[in-house]
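Structure in, sequence out. Go:
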């Protein structure tokens, strides 16, 4: 479905991605982690064709996003949903108008009643039934994330991209968003790609974890294998975010791996 092959990307003399090859498992949640400035968001932008690599291929549904024309890029992008870091909601619009925004532009054949029914369905799915007419400006941080997720899934995409879904949230709300992401994957059976600094949340939601460091792909493994890797930079990164056990037999006690 999605594969990066030997991707290089530089901005001036600053090399961001070095020979990145990564195949995203369909129907599962893949998290991309790493320190700030290491290429996570740049990778995401390559996947949707907002950036093109200097070298290599970015294959999405059989289309090489590195060489595709604008018409083909548009067709592929319609198969994606996106949850932005800050929600990226229009505060001047109601909740319902925010979520139905993609339908207005991508499904103009739908009537207003059909759009409302679709939006109400997605609001229930993200745990916010009955707020269709509520002003967006009055939502809490967690509610904004849920509304953003409702907008991301309203067109029923095949892949959803998450940019720091827990950013700016308190621990309790972060846990609720993690649970919602897991529920959505099970309910919808689609592919999730999550960019995150939150290691605890990542372990809770991810089936696979890829780590970027210094523009290189350090590791890409199923979550239970990733937390056991004996790679110094992986261990250092995890230890700054988790209390890691000393022995490998204790790894199963980490959050999300009970």
């Amino acid at each position: 479905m999605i594969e990066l092959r030997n991707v290089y990307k530089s901005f001036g003399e600053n090399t961001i991605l070095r020979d990145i090859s990564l195949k995203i498992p369909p129907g599962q949640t893949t998290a991309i982690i790493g320190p700030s400035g290491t290429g996570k968001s740049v990778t995401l932008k390559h996947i949707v064709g907002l950036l093109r690599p200097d070298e290599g291929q970015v294959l999405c549904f059989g289309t090489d996003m590195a060489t595709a024309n604008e018409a083909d890029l548009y067709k592929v992008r319609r198969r994606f949903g996106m949850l932005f870091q800050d929600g990226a909601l229009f505060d001047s619009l109601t909740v319902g108008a925010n979520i139905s925004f993609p339908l207005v532009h991508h499904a103009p054949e739908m009537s207003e009643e059909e759009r409302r029914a679709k939006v109400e369905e997605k609001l229930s799915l993200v745990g916010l039934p009955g707020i269709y007419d509520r002003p967006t400006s009055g939502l809490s941080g967690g509610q904004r994330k849920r509304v953003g997720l409702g907008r991301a899934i309203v067109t029923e995409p095949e892949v959803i991209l998450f940019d720091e879904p827990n950013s700016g949230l308190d621990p309790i709300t972060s846990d609720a968003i993690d649970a919602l992401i897991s529920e959505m994957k099970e309910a919808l059976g689609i592919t999730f790609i999550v960019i995150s600094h939150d290691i605890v949340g990542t372990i809770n939601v991810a089936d696979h974890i890829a780590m970027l460091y210094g523009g290189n792909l350090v590791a890409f493994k199923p979550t239970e294998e990733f937390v056991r890797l004996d790679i110094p930079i992986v261990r250092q990164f995890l230890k700054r975010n988790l209390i890691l056990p000393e022995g490998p037999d204790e790894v199963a006690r980490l959050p999300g791996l009970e």
